[in-house]
Structure formats: C-alpha cells, structure tokens
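TA notes, week 10

Several of you asked for a full example with nothing omitted. So below is the full record: structure tokens for the whole chain, then the designed sequence directly under it. When grading your own attempts, check the secondary structure regions first.
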C-alpha cells in the first residue's frame, strides 16, 4: 500500500496562494470540507501549508487585524512532504513524528496530491477488510474438503 493508491483516487487538489486573504482561505477550507491545503506560488511550486490550525493559532496569539492578514503571514513554511512511493505506514509515521495531519505528495517539485491521516486510516481499513475476506474464503474452502 503506497500513497500513490490514495492520490490516484483523489479529485484535484485544492490549493491557495500566499497572497490570498485568510478569509478566502477559510472559505475554501469550509466549502471544500478540508482541514488543510498546500500553498503554491505563481509557478505552482509548494511554498507552504495552510490549515485550520494556523487560523486558530493566529486567534489564540491575538494577532492584530487577522482579517487583513494573508495566507503567507500564517502558513507553515517548512513543508514536510512525501512521494508516491512512500508507503501508507511511512506516511502515517511522518505525520506522527511531525505532529501534522496532512502531507503533500510532491515529486520533481510537482504537487500530485495531499494525504491526510483520515486517508491513511481508510486505506488500512480497506486492506484489513480485504485480508479478512480472503481468510474467510480460505477457511470456508478448507472446511468444504
């Protein structure tokens, strides 16, 4: 099970730009039902991550004029990413070690998608169900002999 399996089934990745307002980004997060999104520059290169936690952090630290701030002011600039060859377990480990819930999938500076902890758990659940089904079939076949 690799990240590629998750990304292949995803719709287009929702992104924002550093010059977008916090309100614009918040509306995107809300309407698209996502918790975070990559921030890309004019060339499409990922330059950060922006999500619900960034908004909460800004309010908690009582940043002045948060409504006038831009995504580039609050985004996480240290982008932790993976590739399509990363296993689902490795992606989960990346998220755990870095205390994040979303990891962009990047190869050759190209954004291919984003993987969330929810995506990885769903992939593992589906795999476990398939294994259980196979074991059940093997058990039934063995009893039929």
């Amino acid at each position: 099970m690799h990240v590629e399996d998750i990304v292949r089934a995803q719709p287009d990745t929702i992104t924002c730009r550093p010059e977008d307002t916090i309100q614009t980004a918040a509306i995107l997060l809300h309407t698209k039902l996502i918790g975070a999104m990559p921030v890309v520059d004019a060339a499409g290169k990922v330059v950060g991550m922006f999500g619900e936690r960034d908004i909460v952090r800004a309010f908690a630290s009582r940043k002045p004029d948060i409504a006038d701030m831009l995504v580039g002011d609050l985004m996480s600039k240290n982008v932790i990413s993976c590739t399509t060859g990363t296993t689902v377990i490795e992606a989960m480990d990346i998220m755990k070690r870095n205390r994040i819930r979303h990891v962009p999938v990047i190869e050759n500076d190209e954004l291919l998608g984003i993987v969330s902890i929810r995506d990885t758990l769903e992939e593992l659940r589906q795999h476990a169900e398939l294994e259980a089904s196979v074991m059940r079939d093997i058990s039934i076949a063995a009893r039929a002999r």
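The helical segments are 3-8, 22-31, 52-60, 71-74, 88-98, 117-143. Use that as a sanity check on your answer.
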